[in-house]
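Record passed on underneath.
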Amino acid sequence: MKLTIGVPVYNPGKYFLLAMGTILDQSFKDFEVLLVDDGSTDNSGKFCDDFAEKYPFIRVIHKPNGGPSSARNVIIREARGEYVGIIDADDMIHPDYYKRMVSVLDETGLPVVKCGREYLEKGALPENKPIGKGYEIITTKRAFKNDLCELRRTLLVEGMCTKLWRREVLQQGSFNEELRNEEDILFVFEMLFKFDKFAKIDDTLYYVVQNENSITHNSQNCERNLIHIIRSREIMAERVKDLAPESLNVIVNNSLFNIFEEYKYWLSKGVQIPQSVRDAIIKTFAPYENILNFMIKKQFEGLKRGENKVIEFYHKKTLRSIYKRFMRYETYRSKH
């Protein structure tokens, strides 16, 4: 079997049938679908069984709720295909998604290929534009620098859904089951140190549906999401300290900047940030305070004083632009 399409399923609601429709409509046909019902409390578990009864290439595993990391780890262990893709149960894919991705891995022999994605407005359907044939081969060293050190448009270090992996490579890693936010970014980051090159295609083949009921958008999960992002970035800093110590300074600063961006997002939604989140940020980054640059240190000190205004002063895009220029100056200064 050429391909396993893994789908963690937890209460995706009305979007699940749309997602499954785009999987069943794939032009590439040599695949199995592995649905992992992660303790859904809506009708999703029954829908999974209905699909498996109708289509012999669909398998279902029901398990108690353990979060997306737990469900993805089941997929990694149970996949039978030469290649493995893991997509969300409330998103959609281009009809040629797997045809295109499989062809690139077949041609290059590389461990993973990544495509482009598009965020759909509520109720919108994808246009499914014609796809090309070109691709770019990128080193993981370049992706590490680009995505994590320079905060540019991501080459690889983002979620799992835009990627297709060779099974033997994917099975070298596992998701941190303690985390329910940024667990996918942490996973991809750690995988960067297990291979040297990957393929990137510019075609937009994956469509992210803006599900207002998803874990990441639900304000009731704000505290947990922020705590888990902080923990993910803490683990990342610890790994960098061991594997790429020369990058620790910039990784710590960029990680704290990303956390402040998320913090500001919830403030903009009118959510009261619990003291536990502030305490976690302070505890996690206090050991690195001496390497924080001026801009981030100012925000960090403001947070310690209980000031939200330091974080929410700039518009997000403006702040990111200022911060990028500041970091380029810091990098230049450190070399001269």
The two ends are 55 Å apart (CA to CA). The domain at 3-209 is CATH 3.90.550.10 (Spore Coat Polysaccharide Biosynthesis Protein SpsA; Chain A). Residues 91 and 291 are 40 Å apart (CA to CA).
